[in-house]
Amino acid sequence: MAFLLEEEDNREVLEAALSFVDEFGEARRPLSPQDPRERNSTLASPAFRDNKASRQATKNERRRQLRHAGVYGNPNRARNERRREIAGLRKQLEKLQLDLQTLQTRRGEIEARQPTEESTDSAPQLPSMWQQVATQQRRQRSEAEGENVRLKLAVQRQQKMADDLKSLLQRKARQLSNECASLIANTSRNSIVNIVEVRVDLGDFQQLFRHLEAARQEVDAVFAANGLANMVATPSDIHIREGDDGKYLEAFSNKLLAFRLQAVTEALWSHFKSLEKHAGNGSLYQKAEKVRTVRMAHAS
């Protein structure tokens, strides 16, 4: 039963296909040829000639208007259009290549940045205010480092200049000492100094006290002039000053002792009152006592 139904369906399909082919053949069948005399009469008719003349006149009028507007027929128009089309396609190809390179670069950056973003997503983001503070502190730190470098170079230059001046002064001092050594060697080593009688009343010591006070005032004046009177640090410096005899060089050194003033005074007095040394030139001396005069003979 199923086989019979299938045969009937196939038969219907075949009949429909044959009928479609017949209809298509009738549509493609050429029309009957026209009689040559009828065709010639149609071409020779006044209506056909007027229609052709009107079309030619319209075409000529259009050409005239185009020439008047400055548009002329170009025999190479098709070739130029193809060239323009090829140039446009080339530009479009270059643009597409640039877009492709840009997309590839962005893709690489995104892939490279993705692990970093994943690692930083867990960390808390700093507020913009703290970022500005950090940027300002970083800028101040860089400026301070630059200023420190500049000051360090300036200190090094000043230290080098001071060292050169110190060596020059030391060399000049040694030269002066060598020049004065010959004069000191030629002087007499035996000298007699007359001093006041010491075995008298205390009133005779007033003159010595006046000399001592004058010497102390001179020392205070020197200390006040070079700044040692109020100096707390322990520097060694050299100044160029101008006096009555012209300019002179003044070198001084200040040292602080970790002792009381009274203890230092007693130690200095115990040192310089000894009979075995002399504070001036380090020579040994001895005293000779007479009735009215005490003579001090210096011996080498």
TrEMBL record:
Q: Highest taxon of the source?
A: Eukaryota
What does the UniProt keyword field contain? Coiled coil
Q: What is this protein called?
A: Uncharacterized protein
Q: Enumerate the PANTHER family for this protein.
A: BHLH DOMAIN-CONTAINING PROTEIN, HYPOTHETICAL CYTOSOLIC PROTEIN
User: Quick one: where's region Disordered?
Assistant: 25-81, 106-146
Q: What is the lineage of its organism?
A: Eukaryota, Sar, Stramenopiles, Oomycota, Peronosporomycetes
- Please list the residue ranges that the record marks as compositionally biased, kind Polar residues: 121-137
Enumerate composition-biased segments (Basic and acidic residues).
Answer: 25-40, 106-116
Coiled-coil parts of chain: 155-186
